[in-house]
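Recap quiz, item 2
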Amino acid sequence: MIKIFLMVNKQGQTRLSKYYEHVEINKRTLLETEVIKSCLSRSNEQCSFIEFKDFKLIYRQYAALFIVVGVNDTENEMAIYEFIHNFVEVLDEYFSRVSELD
Amino acid sequence: MVVPSSKLQDLIEEIRGAKTQAQEREVIQKECAHIRASFRDGDPLHRHRQLAKLLYVHMLGYPAHFGQMECLKLIASPRFTDKRVGYLGAMLLLDERQDAHLLITNSIKNDLSQGIQAVQGLALCTLSTVGSAEMCRDLATEVEKLLLQPGPYVRKKAVLTAVHIIRKVPELSNIFLPPCAQLLHERHHGVLLGTITLITELCERSPAALKHFRKVVPQLVQILWTLVTTGYSTEHSISGVSDPFLQVQILRLLRILGRNHEESSETMNDLLAQVATNTDTSRNAGNAVLFETVLTIMDIRSVAGLRVLAVNILGRFLLNSDKNIRYVALTSLLRVVQSDHSAVQRHRPTVVECLREPDASLSRRALELSLALVNSSNVRAMTQELQSFLESCPPDLRADCASGILLAAERFAPTKRWHIDTILRVLTMAGTHVRDDAVANLTQLIGGAQELHAYSVRRLYSALAEDISQQPLVQVAAWCIGEYGDLLLEGSCEETEPLQVEEEEVLALLEKVLQSHMSLPATRGYALTALMKLSTRLRGDNNRIRQVVSVYGSCLDVELQQRAVEYNALFQKYDYMRAAILEKMPLVERGGTQDEEAKESKEAQHSEAAVIPTEPQTSKLLDLLDLLDGTSGAAQPPPPLEPSSEGTSVHLLDLPCVSPAPASIPNLKVFEREGLQLTLSFVRPPGTPALLLIMVTAINTSEADVTHFVCQAAVPKSFQLQLQAPSGDTVPAQGGLPMTQLLRILNPKKAPLRLKLRLTYNHFGQSVQEIFEVNNLPVETWQ
């Protein structure tokens, strides 16, 4: 089950966050900074799946924007990876030439 | 005068135009004030616009709670534009924790029963996002009705809402069971995907539903079959695979349905084989489907051939250059290694390759998997690899790697020498990261391997001479040098290069350890005791040692001071006892806690179920008498001398002082050969009914002395045997002073006593070894 859907840019600003389980507002920023830190510290060599506390993070980078999805254990990571790409393609299709600021 | 409200776009442009955070805040505050005023005035025409702006501001992180009532008003309004923004606002602002959210229940109910699809869609979306338990209960029946509506747009949303309702209120699942079967006939993939998710949720939450849905397995198989075998379909294809998301969901549902259920698993076998072989693996989508297939095959009761296929697929994944794929492959192999060990063994070389990955999570997984794959046939190669990994691995993995190597070495060591070598190497490389009991294990191992004493003490000496910073290594080395210092100085050993070591060098090294600031207090203790022991082993005079010991008599560390003072006393007052006290230590028995720890770490490493339980090290090493039951209740020489406890002074003087109480069991002559006779006399002390004392007396009536006489005994497992120290190891000739040895046997179960004796001695210039069982034991010995 997807727990978190985040879009964060390289400077660490959250562009979009959607929590599918309730998390306190103040804990959210903390969580987001930690997530961003772990994603930004990965190099290109490393794989896109990170184990983070009690769930798994799957991230994908598009130019300066990171799309991060946090899932629980039962999900197929590679399907989620594909899903992120599908999402971006849909946005692109619908809004044409979508960029971070849009 | 009412200022005409700006449109959302204008607001956005204004906010974007703000150069600093403060400016932005200003703009937003001004706008919020406008919005609040407009809400107060109740302007119905532009309300939606105001709310839209408010929602945008909310997304940026500013407070927007005053907009909640407006959402309600907008939802209730008949216009679609209003409803749209209103529902959106409801989803963003009105979550469960707000009190106002229940108020929209009625509006949703009305909207759901209206015929307009778009409106129904909006209502369903909102319900599925923010629906609380009470709302769900109220509206469940409405949603169910919508499940069977003709249009796929509404059905899709209705199914997703149903999923949410079930998550919130599991008791309502019964309502949604009947429509599911019909929904499976859908052609629209969106509805199908939703239905599969719904069924998955239902099955996960209730076993009754699970049983109910086993009936639909054939149908699911059919759907997946069509998906996989039909050709390219533009609507659903993602990089060549037709709707991978649907495929993955169906596979997951099949996994849940087929788990522990033979019949369903059988129906799935062909399909899974088909999917596994036909999916295109060049792109990620195909690999995702393949991965899910593998997980499913592993979980259900599949045929062996299929499982092997699955493991091979995972092996192929490992060879793939994409890191993500390797990661999932390693994770799944780890799960599989317990059940299909041999299949995974085939891929061992690839796994070992993965150890060299720069990515930390990959190398960690590879390490765990490699440790799980070590078995007796590949242990040498594997430890070689693991050791080279240990040298280069990141520090957080070092501890795991080191303990893993040590454990594997313990379980599968082909020879003792190899075992000692391996432990030595690990200690030199990663000494600070090993577990605390590694030192104890190693000392015991070395102590038990008598033939390797010379070898190990040399190796340790050279290692110590190079580097005294690795504490476990230093401790073991100090202990060994203390125990076997004489062997070190002898100068000859076939297994290593000849090493000429002078006494002075050894003493200097130990002093260096004592003085080094890198040494822990425990290490200093070891070194001090080693120095003491050397005082009896070395041939030179002991001035240097005495000096050191007396210096430490005033050391600040209490433990060291105590030891030094006691050793000093040994030198001065009790010099005659020094040799006896400091003689070679007998083998330390491994306690019960060691076995438990070994068991725990075995479990933690997902090891195979068929692992040999770690018998006490001592029984393997002493390798005495294969006993009566085939298990060894091997005898132990007198209670061990711990190096780390408080002084060595008094314990060994605890010689047997139990005087045999009067008892009337007749003596038994058990052995005679060439003038050497062995007699057993029995005593049952009245105070302890389970205890039996046997005095073994050896008399020599021949003309030649019997030298190096050693008597060992063994009893069945339910007994406890203790051999006290013999009075000597020479039985002088011609009826001289007999040699005696006391055996204490505890027999709590009053089982029949069986006793086997083993004698080794030199007589008439020949070495003799005799093993025999004592027959005719009088009944009174055990009843």
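The first helix of chain B runs from residue 8 to 17.
The longest strand of chain B covers residues 691-700.
End of item.
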